[in-house]
């Protein structure tokens, strides 16, 4: 007999265990589950729906909506997210997943949400979307539930073994410095400005990543800034998400300053610093394959390692 309820204290270990059995390519630790889910300011136990067969956990779907704005006062009142779901292999295609998903969507609808995304939830997304190659059953399930693919970001990796900036990059950096640009590690005096720059020109999640990263011990030398005279025009960081040192990003250059190779210089400066720390690789989860950033990464030696589909459903 299958029974359903939402999360209660004490369920954590069973959730993590079933997660790791069901999503073998994306295992999680109890610490990461605690940090990314239970300690999320937007966490509501009623959004974490569970299915049990007798006393054994066999399914989970997580729904979340904003209780705390990412920036300003915007609670994105029409948006909700499904960051993850999984069902034990023994009860797949038995209606358990459908029942859990309906309960999760009903939870979001009752909160006034009109559209639901899988899985592009910030700040604590696990993956950008569904990896069709890794989880074809999961992708097919979302399609059956009425989710539609919006776009397909890619994850990329680059080995840093033997990395060194080319003479062309060194020459380009010197040329820009002669023109009045400077490239340096951030200092305390830069933090407010670079956070606002990230928030206003790019994405509030980027500013949050910088702020929370520093609060959690991110060394300032892992934040690089470029200025045109005194004006901040670009930045990149590594080690900002979950304290993982070889995770690159976020990274951005003022659109008015693009076309001068500043992003290329910043990227190589960052990779050089990562290599000097002894890191053997750099990776990130999310970029557009055919975006300007995607092309830059490919030219810099990054290779696509995964593809995801961001999905959306109207409710």
Account of the protein in words:
- This protein has 315 residues and is an alpha+beta fold.
- It has 2 domains: 2-152, Gcn5-related N-acetyltransferase (GNAT) (Aminopeptidase), CATH 3.40.630; 162-279, Gcn5-related N-acetyltransferase (GNAT) (Aminopeptidase), CATH 3.40.630.
- It contains 9 helices and 14 strands.
- The strands form 3 sheets. Strands 1-2-3-4-5-14-6 form a 7-stranded mixed beta sheet. The protein has a 4-stranded antiparallel beta sheet with strand order 8-9-10-11, with helices on both faces.
- A hairpin with a 2-residue loop joins strand 9 (223-228) and strand 10 (231-238).
State the gist of this model.
The protein is about 35% helix and about 25% strand. With about 325 residues, the protein is of the alpha+beta class.
| H/E element sequence | EHHEEEHEHEEHEHHEEEHEHEE
User: DSSP helix count?
Assistant: 9
The class by helix and strand makeup works out as: alpha+beta
The strand line-up of the biggest sheet is: 1-2-3-4-5-14-6
**Which runs of at least 5 residues are low in confidence (pLDDT < 50)?**
none
C-alpha-based Rg, rounded: 21 Å
Task: List descriptors.
315 residues; alpha+beta; Aminopeptidase; four-stranded antiparallel beta sheet; elongated
Write the layout of secondary structure elements.
Elements: E1 2-6, H1 12-22, H2 30-38, E2 48-53, E3 56-64, E4 79-87, H3 96-110, E5 115-118, H4 136-144, E6 148-151, E7 154-159, H5 167-178, E8 181-185, H6 188-201, H7 204-215, E9 223-228, E10 231-238, E11 248-253, H8 262-276, E12 281-287, H9 292-299, E13 303-307, E14 310-314
Parallel strand pairs: 4-5
Antiparallel strand pairs: 1-2, 2-3, 3-4, 5-14, 6-14, 7-12, 7-13, 8-9, 9-10, 10-11
């Amino acid at each position: 007999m299958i029974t359903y309820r939402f999360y209660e204290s004490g369920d954590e270990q069973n959730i993590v265990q079933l997660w790791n059995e069901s999503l073998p390519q994306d295992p999680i630790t109890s610490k990461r589950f605690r940090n990314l889910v239970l300690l999320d300011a937007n966490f509501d136990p009623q959004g974490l729906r569970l299915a049990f067969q007798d006393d054994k956990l066999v399914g989970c779907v997580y729904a979340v909506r904003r209780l705390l704005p990412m920036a300003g006062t915007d609670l994105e009142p029409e948006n909700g997210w499904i960051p993850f779901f999984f069902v034990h292999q023994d009860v797949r295609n038995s209606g358990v997943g459908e029942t859990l998903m309906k309960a999760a969507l009903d939870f979001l609808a009752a909160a006034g949400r009109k559209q639901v995304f899988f899985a592009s939830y910030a700040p604590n997304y696990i993956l950008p979307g569904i990896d069709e190659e890794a989880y074809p059953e999961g992708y097919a399930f979302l399609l059956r539930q009425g989710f539609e693919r919006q776009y397909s970001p890619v994850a990329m990796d680059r080995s840093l073994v033997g990395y060194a900036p080319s003479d062309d990059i060194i020459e380009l950096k010197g040329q820009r410095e002669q023109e009045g640009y400077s490239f340096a590690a951030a200092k305390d005096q830069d933090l407010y400005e670079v956070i606002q720059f990230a928030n206003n020109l790019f994405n509030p999640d980027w500013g949050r990543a910088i702020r929370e990263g520093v609060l959690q011990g991110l060394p300032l030398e892992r934040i690089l800034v470029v200025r045109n005279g005194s004006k901040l025009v670009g930045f990149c960081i590594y080690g900002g998400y979950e304290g993982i040192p070889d995770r690159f990003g976020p990274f951005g250059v003022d659109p008015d300053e693009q076309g001068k190779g500043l992003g290329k210089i910043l990227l190589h400066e960052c990779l050089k610093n990562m290599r000097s720390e002894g890191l053997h690789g750099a990776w990130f989860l999310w970029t557009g394959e055919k975006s300007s950033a995607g092309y830059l990464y490919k030219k810099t030696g990054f290779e696509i390692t995964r593809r995801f589909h961001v999905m959306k459903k109207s409710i």
